[in-house]
Design a protein that fits this description.
It contains seven helices and no strands. With 155 residues, it is mainly α. Among the domains are: 36 residues; 71 residues.
């Protein structure tokens, strides 16, 4: 997840999406939503020898060459893991766990950047993480105001 955030900071969206997907799959495995890698028994082996399709003929000439389909690197893929996905609340939970872990390691700025990805910014847990982050960044007045808000305005 940290690699996803870091890739996002350097404006590499594709790499950021890739690392986020890998982190969320690992999170789903830790919660038991997706089986561990290599534990699913299949009737056929997971890797197959590539099919040797029909041999390509010599390229046609003239108008037929124009009609020939252009090759691209785009691939249509199937939905992995039987389309099991995390809900928005579960994704928020993953970001909150990471943020709390970073706060335990005194990485307050990185924890704050992680909290930006949480969609429910008004939950007590998010507000507490933000307050703790401000305290670790030595912004005590802001943290005191946030604590006062937490104790007086949150149900």
């Amino acid at each position: 997840m940290l690699l996803s955030i870091t890739a996002g900071l350097v404006n590499n969206e594709n790499l950021s999406k890739k690392f986020k997907a890998m982190a969320l799959i690992d999170y789903m495995r830790s919660k038991g939503k997706v089986p561990e890698a290599g534990t699913l028994k299949q009737r056929e082996p997971g890797s197959h020898a590539p099919d040797k399709g029909p041999q390509e003929e010599a390229p046609p000439e003239g108008e037929e060459a124009v009609e020939q389909k252009m090759r691209t690197n785009e691939v249509t893929s199937m939905a992995a893991f039987k389309n099991i996905r995390l809900t928005q609340e579960e994704e928020n939970e993953a970001y909150l766990e990471l943020s709390e872990f970073l706060l335990d390691k005194s990485l307050c700025v990185l924890s704050g950047q992680t909290l930006e990805f949480v969609t429910d910014k008004d939950s007590v847990r998010v507000l507490f993480c933000q307050t703790k982050s401000k305290m670790l960044c030595l912004r005590y007045e802001e943290a005191a105001e946030d604590l006062h808000h937490l104790f007086t305005n949150v149900d």
